[in-house]
Amino acid sequence: MTAVTANDVSLSWYEASARQRIDALVDAGSFSEFIGPELREISPHLSIFDLPEQFDDGIVIGRGRLDGAPVLVAAQEGRFMGGAFGEVHGAKLTGLLRAARALKQDLVILFDTGGVRLQEANAGELAIAEIMRAVIEARREGVNVVGLIGGRAGCYGGGSLIAGTCSKLIISEQGRLSVSGPEVIETNKGIEEFDSRDRALVWRTMGGKHRYLIGGADTFVDDEALAFREAAITALKVGTRCDVTVLEAEQARLERRLQRFGEAEDAVEIWQALGIDDPTDVPALPTGAFLRAATNRENADDAR
Amino acid sequence: MTLDDILTGLFPNGRKIATNGAQISGQAVLPDVGPVHVLGITQGQPLGVDEAIVLAGRVIEIVKSGDRAPILLLVDSASQHMSKRDELLGLSEYLSHLAKTLLLAEAEGHRTVGLLYGGSAAGAFIATALATGTLVALPGAHPAVMDLPSMARVTKLPIDVLKAKAEATPVFAPGLDNMVKTGGIQIVWDADAPLAPQLAAVLRQPQGQDDRSRLGANRGGRRKAAELAERIARAAASPQEARHG
Amino acid sequence: MEKLSFRLTATRSAGGTRAQAMVGVVASGNLEVLLERSVPADTCTIDIATAAHGFDKVWDAVVRDFVARRSAGGLRISINDGGARPDTVALRLAQGVRKIEEPER
């Protein structure tokens, strides 16, 4: 085994590309790609719509080392087609998850996605279902599947459902985790239900701080590749189960959330109920102060 | 076919199924098979946090009972509930949790069969029907990711152009045939034949791996997914095939 | 999509030993460039698929300038373009050559 090469690249996770994120996440120089761009496994469906293709179809997969330990990695590119799941994009993650199960090797997913790619919606939808099943099958073999959320496309639609199957989730303030996007809610239910241009509303309803406070994510980090790296190394040390005990605990946790916060009109009310002294200040708090204020947050330990 | 017709056709020898709003839950006896747990989201309703948590709780109770009886999940839903409240409360976790309980039930020895007899879309479809071990449908079922008018808005293409493209490929347009061709639905039942034997036939099949991408390839609706996923599993198993990017 | 292909004579061949390099992403106003060391050392081929139609003269000028000014010999370059401006194209091509010349770890 080669000596561990620490990675000290400073990089905004939000601004970085999928390839830059992987290079900054894993031990320096340890990444090798599967089905790389040179194989040109592009989407067979985008040409029907006269849309540009990308050689990796918006997802980079492969293996690397994290603090010396072998790990499989998948990173979505949120700038290509919104990081959306199509047939090829999805199959690359499904294949990697099946490999993780067979090899009993942990896997890290770098989410950056708007959900299903509409131009290949049926294939994308089925890919989501196949991926969720593959995550659970891997977890039941003892494999950790850790999700990292902090990209510019957020983690929406089917991507958010996949995130819900992961053993641990790491999120930054910029990471948004939600099924229906702001525009989708507004288009379907009207601006009175959700004003998608109200960015503060979007961040406090779907953003990383809120998700961390209600137990929707396990670790809150700065928008910094090193912070994601350190959090991923820690998350992979915990171990995972996905049995009836864990899902019963999740059931209790999610029921409790409805009981505690089901009547809340806005995130600020929830933060107040969580014992935060100045809940309206939460969006402005820097990470250290936020984490101190979040002492009484809900958590999903052994319940995800 | 109404829900009542379906339940009568499947379980002529008796059933005890409670209705709670748009949800159903209970037990029934399938001729030649035995007890079957019946769950459902019905009446074309959306699936939100309140509905998902009840269904998931029921699945966990079934798993804990240890009876290993099959679970039939009837689905006629809308999409996920699109609201500020649902997202504020973390809808993605509730939908994932429901899907996970169904996957758990299957892993713990319950056959899980989804029966799509109406609509279903997007997150609701993924969390229910698509999380079962075998998904079947009745004629007239209408799964969708997004309806064509909405798709026209998002892709900025005229609806006539979208319709023409939908003739050429099953990969994006809504509808039962397309979901069958891409491998998501194993079989469409014959509505004119007795239903009970058709469910019994599904339950007699050995429970295997996720074969949806293989079905999609064989039916010509999803040609690349199965082959690509297999190639990746092979590449990951052999150190030589990985290349530095 | 419009497809364009160039096969140019290059006076200087690309340095380094990496087999390939990849820069950029396909997005509005952006492009990805895949460089592979797989043609004769005095040749550079460039294949372009672009969403913006009718700019073949601009592409011709940009790629000729690139091959004249950089060490592009031996490179098979493939571009997927989401409608990038010429200066962005030139920047990505230069980044690509720099990347394929980086020492291997």
Description:
The complex is a heterotrimer of chains A (304), B (245) and C (105). Helix content of chain A is 38%, strand content 13%. Chain A has 304 residues and is an alpha/beta fold. In chain A, the strands form two sheets. In chain A, strands 1-2-3-4-5-7-9 form a seven-stranded mixed sheet, sandwiched between helices. In chain A, strands 6-8 form a two-stranded parallel ribbon. In chain A, 62% of the residues are buried. In chain B, a hairpin with a 3-residue loop joins strand 2 and strand 3. Chain B has 245 residues and is an alpha/beta fold. Chain B has helices spanning 3-10, 49-65, 84-88, 91-107, 122-127, 148-155, 159-168, 176-181, 195-204, 212-218, 225-237, and strands spanning 15-20, 23-30, 34-47, 71-80, 112-116, 119-121, 134-137, 142-144, 187-188. In chain B, 44% of the residues lie in helices and 22% in strands. By secondary structure, chain C is of the alpha+beta class. Chain C has one domain (2-101). The mean pLDDT of chain C is 96. The interface between A and B is large, with 94 and 83 residues.
Structural topology:
The complex is a heterotrimer of chains A (304), B (245) and C (105).
Chain A: H1 18-25, E1 32-34, E2 59-66, E3 69-76, H2 87-103, E4 107-111, H3 121-140, E5 145-149, E6 155-156, H4 158-163, E7 168-172, E8 177-178, H5 182-189, H6 199-206, H7 208-214, E9 219-221, H8 225-235, H9 244-261, H10 267-273, H11 287-293
Parallel strand pairs in A: 3-4, 4-5, 5-7, 6-8, 7-9
Antiparallel strand pairs in A: 1-2, 2-3
Helix pairs in contact in A: 2-3, 6-7
Chain B: H1 3-10, E1 15-20, E2 23-30, E3 34-47, H2 49-65, E4 71-80, H3 84-88, H4 91-107, E5 112-116, E6 119-121, H5 122-127, E7 134-137, E8 142-144, H6 148-155, H7 159-168, H8 176-181, E9 187-188, H9 195-204, H10 212-218, H11 225-237
Parallel strand pairs in B: 3-4, 4-5, 5-7, 6-8, 7-9
Antiparallel strand pairs in B: 1-2, 2-3
Chain C: E1 2-9, E2 20-23, E3 31-37, E4 43-50, H1 56-69, E5 75-81, H2 86-101
Parallel strand pairs in C: 4-5
Antiparallel strand pairs in C: 1-4, 2-3, 3-5
